[in-house]
Design goal:
Radius of gyration: 25 Å
Number of strands: 5
Structural class: alpha/beta
Strand order of the largest sheet: 2-1-3-4-5
CATH superfamily of the largest domain: SGNH hydrolase
Number of helices: 10
Amino acid sequence: MKLFTCGRRTLWIGLLYVALVHALLCVAIWKTNFLPLARKTLGLDPPEERNIAHYQTMLGWFERDRRVPAGAVVLLGDSLLQDLDSTHLGREVHSFALGGTTASVLLEAAPGLSCLERAKIAVLGVGANDLKYRSPTQIRADYSLLLNALPPELDVVVVPVLPVDERAPNVVARPYLSNRRLGELDQLLSACALARPRTRRVDVRELLAPDGSLRSDLHSGDGWHLSDEGDVLLGRAIARELDLVSR
């Protein structure tokens, strides 16, 4: 009888253990990001570059779009231009730059910006984020379509794809940000820019180290986002091109 009682107790403990494991598993699945990550891995969710928050921010662009005056300077691109202090450009600008933006997403959004029909100059800086999702040759196709989608009478100043400081731990953790890939991409995008009339490229050599990488004193510590000094140098370089276009 005692052996029977122990056996029943062991059975109940085992059943309780199994129930607890399943309960924890349910919590892990439903209360964490397990399912979104699984869906992305299986290709069931759209890529991260097209998330809801990103599109909500872009929807706000169209409200500001109506207030952009004729003859304006418009910024289009990713965090490189979003973080740029526009006072360094020496003129009033209207920014539609957003961190994380890709050429692919901008290709979808730009045709909806009526201000590009009224603007005098667009400053375009995009492409590096695309490397997280596609190859340089695939990015070139989107970038070329984006340039060709801009009004033909619009002057465009293109910011090159900047190299990174490959010694920074954050860069090491992101193999897609290697200077080899960034350099290959920049060459492809440069050819696209040269093929479009009324398009100029910014000279960013002042930001580069002798080995062609981003100067370590010009990034914020992560290896690619610019420091305040880097921001100033980039702003001045863009301003020089804006002056040349405006003459």
